[in-house]
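Repro:
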Amino acid sequence: MSNRACYRVLRLVVLATLIGLCGATPPAWSGIQVSPVRIVFTPRDRIVTVTLGNDGAREVTVQAETLRWSQGPNGADVLEPTDEVVASPPLLKLAPGARKVIRLARLRRHLPEQELSYRLLVHELPSADAPAEKALNLRFTFTFSVPIFVAPRAPMRDVRCQPAPDFASVTCRNEGNTFARVRRLSLFQGEAELATSSPAAYLLPGTAKVLPIKAQAPGARGPARLLIELEDGTTQAHDAALP
């Protein structure tokens, strides 16, 4: 494989990894900061603002684009082009220490009955004065993915979770019309926590996702209790019996 081909493959791996961190705060060592890390259009909002910052030591050029966000089978994220929400300006330069604002405009006028979801992708573009590729001289750029939600007319959150028979995973389905996020899964036997997971997984309306639970300690046959904590502060409890 040529050096140029290797560079492209590694860059795609980095981009895919960062886009997969849905809603996560961008890594500080990248130099670029995005705020807020979740964007919500209320029923009154037509335009919202996002602040981009450069905490690095060099000027960077960034590109902003919006994509329609849905979830397919097994909760897999699907991103598609859209003109329903647009970013302006789509391209800007950030000097070291600079802060600039981009505006997101919602072009659909009617209020949805079911929440609409999008993603704002902020791409760091390669610098024009980057060193020529000699040998294997790699320089990574980054893409940050920020969730965008257009709130429905009458929000209703309804999440139903069901543990697998072996308690190695939990399937959660969002029956409401607005997003939900599973913050933590915990399996207890008495006071002992046998398994836990912190998936921070988004569930868009009408979708389901299988969330694994990581075992921490062996359990004994008998009654147990599974707690499912959601981001909105509610907790679902399921009585169980370990085989």
